[in-house]
Amino acid sequence: MSSTESTAVRRTALDALHRSLGATMTDFAGWDMPLRYGSERDEHNAVRTRAGLFDLSHMGEITVSGPQASELLNFALVGDLAAVGTGRARYTMICRADGGILDDLIVYRLAESEYMVVANASNAQVVLDALVERSADFDAEVRDDRDAYALIAVQGPQSPGILKSLTDADLDGLKYYAGLPGAVAGVPALIARTGYTGEDGFELFVKPEHAVELWQALTEAGEGVGLVPCGLSCRDTLRLEAGMPLYGHELSTSLTPFDAGLGRVVKFQKDGDFVGREALAAAAVRAEEKPPRVLVGLVAEGRRVPRAGYAVVAGGEVIGEVTSGAPSPTLGKPIAMAYVDAAHAAPGTPGVGVDIRGAHEPYEVVALPFYRRQK
After folding, report:
1. What distance lies between CA 330 and its chain's CA centroid?
2. Of 30, 72, 115, 195, which shows the fewest CB atoms inside 10 Å?
3. pLDDT at 374
4. Using omega within 30 degrees of 0 as the cis cutoff, is the peptide bond preceding 369 cis?
């Protein structure tokens, strides 16, 4: 890759449309993406109460296929992907040999011997390289499909109704973390009941040449129920309220899934060895014997917003670090996720604060998530 190629910002198939809507654009993981169209608070509230439309085409799709696709993924990832039924999806992780998290992923099983791995935009190349390297002894192909898909998400309580008006696919039968092929507004799509907002919703994988047509059809279908276009800014506050981790904040190579409180994604009982098994088994024992820092929620008593990297304090000592923080439109006050020493992790632990530019602002320790939708 030449230096000019490596610095070029990538644009999604919806780029011109975002600009025509007056979006504020930002460089995110090498992609020019919409940050917001108007008020991020209004966009956030629309997803919580009505519906929002997102361009997520920066996510990294990798197809794994062939007779040993299941065996490869079971070796390469910490989950049991062979046990996932066709048409279902699984949240999982890819780790280094030392147990450090390379990325968190959603893997869709499209057919008996075909899977789609969806990586975070910032880690897509790392995940692709790791899967290719780990595929050496397996009869399976790893294909970079980042340019083969545009990804549009419609999220929020009105999203099933909006989508039903555009498709004959059986949405009522489509469970959370499942996907099925179907046509939406005449556009062939993989319709997945997944999302990153804490609301019901769908993610639609389509060919890039169909993205504008599909976006416009969804916009028209949602006009009567308050659907609005949404940027990455409100996606971040939505996932924060829902207690969902973000790679580079709550997850990193310096943490194992057990350190992140997500040890449940590691499936030791699956057939065969997998990358990181030994280190993760040791991490599981450590987590049982002496819990490391624990990921908790913090709710502000005042108005000052904590940011990633700020120290969490108690009794004059640093007891942890904020990983994500923002004003919460739903709670009406600033919130944060933070890793804190286990002794201070119980909800209601007194005397906990965040060091915001030298001032120790009081915070209440709460269990995650901050927000859970009524089903």
Report:
1. 20
2. 30
3. 87
4. yes
3-state SS class at 213: helix
Rg, the chain, Cα only: 21
Whole-angstrom distance, CA of residue 60 vs CA of residue 307: 27
DSSP 11-36: E-TTHHHHHHTTPEEEEETTEEEEEE
14 sits in the region (left: phi over 0; alpha: psi -120 to 50; else beta) called alpha
Q: What is the pLDDT of residue 2?
A: 41
Q: What is the pLDDT of residue 291?
A: 79
- The single-letter code of the amino acid at 202 is F
Listed residue (105, 108, 70) closest to 86, CA to CA: 108
Spans in the chain with pLDDT lower than 70 = 1-7
Name the token pair of 139: 């009869």
321-345 exposure pattern, b = at least 16 Cβ within 10 A, e = fewer: bbbbbbbbbbeeebbbbbbbbeebb
| Under 8 Å between Cβ of 292 and 259 | yes
Give the burial class of 51: count Cβ atoms within 10 A of its Cβ; 0-12 exposed, 13-18 middle, 19 or more buried: buried
